[in-house]
Automatic annotation (TrEMBL):
Gene3D superfamilies: 3.40.50.2020. Its cofactor is Mg(2+). This is Hypoxanthine phosphoribosyltransferase. It comes from Ethanoligenens harbinense (strain DSM 18485 / JCM 12961 / CGMCC 1.5033 / YUAN-3). Purine salvage pathway enzyme that catalyzes the transfer of the ribosyl-5-phosphate group from 5-phospho-alpha-D-ribose 1-diphosphate (PRPP) to the N9 position of the 6-oxopurines hypoxanthine and guanine to form the corresponding ribonucleotides IMP (inosine 5'-monophosphate) and GMP (guanosine 5'-monophosphate), with the release of PPi. NCBIfam families: HGPRTase. The lineage of its organism: Bacteria, Bacillati, Bacillota, Clostridia, Eubacteriales. It comes from the Bacteria. Keywords: Cytoplasm, Glycosyltransferase, Magnesium, Metal-binding, Nucleotide-binding, Purine salvage, Transferase. Pfam families: Pribosyltran (PF00156).
Length: 179
């Protein structure tokens, strides 16, 4: 599996250090609020697990599953909701926990949806941001790392459902996804 990686962008240690920093900032910002982490399956499953443990506050956790990519490498803006929140977000200070913001379609959709469902506030924490991919404006409050153009996988992120279990994040060899 690692032979499919062209270049490691962020090691397991770098990711852990950055997640700890984000957790400390979120703790400071959300003290005395009603924090609900909304993880986006499946890509954010590892980030949610690590970030939740780095935020030393009482909080609730829920998940949504939305897909914009299918098995391809680019978003067309059509968002499919596979799993909605278990409870309405009404009154909660929602922090969407996302692995990567690329075109922005997924997050723009989710933000609108959560605001329409009367969340008290809605912000975004993304571990990775790929500004070069942006098609619609989305401004995460917390960003772990900015990534270059190219297809990144690992630490939850897939290509055709593979590579999610890599403990690091790297650039996939273009020949793998047919570029
Ligand atoms: C990927 C990624 C983000 C989204 C970002 O999810 O995990 O959620 O795409 O792309 P966008 O900014 O262009 O919308 P995907 O739809 O592949 O589902 P997955 O998390 O289950 O892999
Ligand atoms: Mn995703
Ligand atoms: Mg995906």
């Amino acid at each position: 599996m690692t032979e499919d990686i062209e270049q490691v962008l962020f090691t397991e240690e770098q990711i852990a250090a950055r997640v700890a920093e984000l957790g400390a900032r979120i703790r400071a910002d959300y003290a005395n609020r009603n924090l609900l982490l909304v993880g986006t399956l499946k890509g954010a499953f590892l980030f949610v697990a690590d970030l939740a443990r780095a935020v030393d506050l009482p909080l609730a956790v829920d998940f949504v599953s939305v897909s914009s990519y299918g098995d391809g490498v680019s978003s067309n803006g059509a968002i499919e909701v596979r799993k909605d929140l278990d409870q309405p977000p009404e009154g909660f200070d929602v922090l969407i926990v996302e692995d990567i913001v690329d075109s922005g379609h997924t997050l723009a959709f989710l933000q609108d949806e959560l605001r329409a469902q009367h969340a008290a506030s809605v912000e975004i924490c993304t571990l990775f941001d790929k500004p070069s991919g942006r098609a619609v404006p989305v401004e995460p409050k917390y960003i772990g790392f900015t990534v270059p153009d190219g297809f990144v996988v690992g630490y939850g992120m897939d290509y055709a459902e593979k590579y999610r279990n890599l403990p690091f994040v790297g650039l996939l060899r273009p020949e793998i996804y047919g570029a």
